Amino acid sequence: MESATSEKDGAQRQEAASLSPFFVSAGADSRSRNSAGPDDEARTTYGDLLNSKDARRWAVRGAAALLAGLAAGLLTGDWRIGATFAAGTLIALAVHAARRQSEVPRWRKPSMAQRRTEAQLRVMKKVGYRVLHARGVPGGNGQIDHFIVGRRGAFAIDSESWDKRLPLRNKLEKLYHGRFSKNERIDEALSEAREAQRLISEELGREITVRAALAIYGPGMPWDSHNLRGVDVIQGQKVRKWLRSGKSRLTEKEIEEIHKAAEKVLPARY
């Protein structure tokens, strides 16, 4: 009789506990991973949210913004100034984190130029462009920093950060940064794009075109984009504008096919 009562009480306690968003039993957790449906996978407990890395990051940012707001309020004697300063600090921290975020693996340490181009390409992804970052070119040590395909065609962009104190000029179809020739870098970008074009065309069984570009950050330019030796040299800040200048007209099906082929023949640089 006593064992029956204890079993009944245990069952009631387990049932009550299972209703709590903080309760996850070991057995139930393993079973749910194996048999959960789409609705179950979408459910997230409060404990999951509190333990997530994103939640901890936002907690740290919120605490820093709160401290900054309190300091500003105490110094000025006006709580409204403190609240405004706290909100501004939180926004600044979020923007800084977004700019540093990268799809490129952390150990590869993407350069500032690559991160700035990647930030622009996030906007293009929202309007249907497909993007791959840090893709290797088989048969060599080359890397395409950003491979993009969208309605206006397929593109291979390498991002560079050069000394802003030295002028950038075009002399007799040759690119000079100060007195230093950059033709070798242009030829590398063209070679990578041509190889990607060949590999993707073979994979698809039809010819496609991949436009090559160098996105330059730092020195001023007398142009937004200029084609030299088969490569478009563009201002780093104008990547999105340049992508819209393509003359191709690809369908959604073609975009997806080229993206999948590029993903297959251009290995990720892990």
From TrEMBL:
<keyword id="KW-1133">Transmembrane helix</keyword>
<keyword id="KW-0812">Transmembrane</keyword>
<feature type="transmembrane region" description="Helical">
    <location>
        <begin position="58"/>
        <end position="75"/>
    </location>
</feature>
<keyword id="KW-0472">Membrane</keyword>
<feature type="domain" description="NERD">
    <location>
        <begin position="109"/>
        <end position="223"/>
    </location>
</feature>
<dbReference type="Pfam" id="PF08378">
    <property type="entry name" value="NERD"/>
</dbReference>
<feature type="compositionally biased region" description="Basic and acidic residues">
    <location>
        <begin position="1"/>
        <end position="12"/>
    </location>
</feature>
<dbReference type="InterPro" id="IPR011528">
    <property type="entry name" value="NERD"/>
</dbReference>
<protein>
    <submittedName>
        <fullName>Nuclease-related domain-containing protein</fullName>
    </submittedName>
</protein>
<feature type="region of interest" description="Disordered">
    <location>
        <begin position="1"/>
        <end position="45"/>
    </location>
</feature>
<feature type="transmembrane region" description="Helical">
    <location>
        <begin position="81"/>
        <end position="98"/>
    </location>
</feature>
